[in-house]
Amino acid sequence: MTLYDRFGRPVTNLRISVTQECNYSCFFCHREGQRFRARLELTPGEIERIVSVASRLGIRKVKLTGGEPTVRGDIIEIVRRIKPYLVDLSMTTNGSRLRELAKPLAKAGLNRVNVSLHSLKPDVYKRITGVDMLETVLEGIEEAVRYLSPVKLNMTVMKGLNEGEIWDMVDFAARTGAILQLIELEAPREVEETGFFRRYFYPLKPVERKLEEMAVEVRERRMHRRKKYFIPTDHGTAEVEVVRAMHNTVFCANCTRLRVTSDGKFKTCLLRNDDLIDFVTALRKGASDSELIDIMRRAVLIREPYWK
Ligand SMILES: Nc1nc2c(ncn2[C@@H]2O[C@H](COP(=O)(O)OP(=O)(O)OP(=O)(O)O)[C@@H](O)[C@H]2O)c(=O)[nH]1
Ligand code: SF4
Ligand code: SF4
C-alpha cells in the first residue's frame, strides 16, 4: 500500500531529523525547516516505531538528518534498529565524525551518506561553517567512500564565497569517487527578498547549461526530476547532480518525501511551518499502529507542492 497526497504524489520516503543539535554553525543553516529549537528528542525506540509503521505503508527509504545526526551518542543504535525495515538507509552529515564512524555506521546497516562540503579552501570552509575542520572532513570522506558508497558531496553554492570552486569540486569528486551535488541556496518566499538571500543567492541555471554541454551522458532521477550529468575530467568521469528548488514547479510536483521533526511531528515540506502534525504525544500515550497510521494519513493529506 502506498500513500498518495491530493496532488497524486506518492510518499515513498521519510527524512527523519534525529536532533536539532550541531557542532557547526553554518550561517545559512535551515535545520530541515524546523524553526524552533526543540528540547524533546525522539528515542531510538520511538524512531524505530515510526519507521516500522511507515514501512507498513510502503515506505522503505529513510534519510537521517539533523542538525547533525552524528552528535547523537546513540546514532549507531538508531541505525541498527531501523535498518531491518528498509531497503535504503542514508544520512546527511557534515562529515566531522565520519573518520571514526563510517565503518561502525556501515556495520550497523547504514547504506550511504551525503556529506556537506562547501569548499576545499580551509579559510572559506571556516567562514561558511564556523569551524576549522576541513582536513578531518576530507579524511572522513575517504573513510565514507570505503564503507558507505555511493557518497554524495553537498556543495551549496553561494555568490562571493565558493562559486569559483565549482569546477575544482567536480574534479575532486571524480578523484575521490564521490557524486557531487550542487545545491542552489533556497528559502521560503518571505526570505527570498531579504538582503541576506540576495547577497548570497547564486543561480545554478547557467552552470547547469554548461554541464549539459560538457556531459557525455545525462540522466533524470524520478525524485524531483533532478538531472544527473556525467562529466569527463582528467581524473575520470564525475557524476554531478543539480538541486534547484526555488520556484521550481517540476521539483515540487515530484516531491515524494515526508519529514519527521526531531521532536516527533510530521512535516510535509521543508519550506513550510504551518504543516506540523504531532505524533509523539499519541505514541507516548500508547497509540496502536492503526492510530499512528491515521495520523500519518492526515499529514499526507495536507501535503501540497510549495512552488506550483
Ligand atoms: N526544497 C527542497 N529541498 C530539498 C529537498 N531535498 C533536498 N533538498 C535540498 O538538497 C539539499 C541536500 O539534500 P540531502 O539531504 O543531501 O538529500 P538528497 O540529495 O535530497 O537525497 P538523496 O539524493 O536521496 O541522497 C538539502 O539541504 C536541501 O537544500 C526537498 O525535498 N525540498
Ligand atoms: S552542518 Fe548542517 S545542521 Fe550543522 S549548522 Fe551546518 S547546515 Fe546546519
Ligand atoms: S514541496 Fe517542494 S519545497 Fe516542499 S519539500 Fe517538496 S520539493 Fe521541497
Automatic annotation (TrEMBL):
Residues the entry annotates as binding GTP: R15, K63, T92, K152, R257, L258, R259
Cofactor: how and how many bound: Binds 2 [4Fe-4S] clusters. Binds 1 [4Fe-4S] cluster coordinated with 3 cysteines and an exchangeable S-adenosyl-L-methionine and 1 [4Fe-4S] cluster coordinated with 3 cysteines and the GTP-derived substrate.
EC code: 4.1.99.22
Reaction(s) this enzyme catalyzes, per UniProt: GTP + AH2 + S-adenosyl-L-methionine = (8S)-3',8-cyclo-7,8-dihydroguanosine 5'-triphosphate + 5'-deoxyadenosine + L-methionine + A + H(+)
Entry cofactors: [4Fe-4S] cluster
Alphabetic keyword roster: 4Fe-4S, GTP-binding, Iron, Iron-sulfur, Lyase, Metal-binding, Molybdenum cofactor biosynthesis, Nucleotide-binding, S-adenosyl-L-methionine
Domain Radical SAM core as annotated: residue spans: 6-234
Gene3D superfamilies per record: Aldolase class I
GO BP term, pick one: Mo-molybdopterin cofactor biosynthetic process
Pathway(s) annotated for this protein in UniProt: Cofactor biosynthesis; molybdopterin biosynthesis
UniProt KW rRNA-binding keyword: no
InterPro entries per UniProt: Aldolase_TIM, Elp3/MiaA/NifB-like_rSAM, MoaA-like, MoaA_arc, MoaA_twitch, MoCo_biosynth_MoaA/MoaC, rSAM, rSAM_sf
Binding site for [4Fe-4S] cluster 1: C22, C26, C29
GO terms for MF: 4 iron, 4 sulfur cluster binding; cyclic pyranopterin monophosphate synthase activity; GTP 3',8'-cyclase activity; GTP binding; metal ion binding; S-adenosyl-L-methionine binding
EC class of the enzyme, as a word: lyase
Binding site for [4Fe-4S] cluster 2: C252, C255, C269
Record keyword Transcription regulation present: no
Protein family membership: Belongs to the radical SAM superfamily. MoaA family.
Function, as annotated: Catalyzes the cyclization of GTP to (8S)-3',8-cyclo-7,8-dihydroguanosine 5'-triphosphate.
This protein's name: Probable GTP 3',8-cyclase
Gene, per the UniProt record: moaA
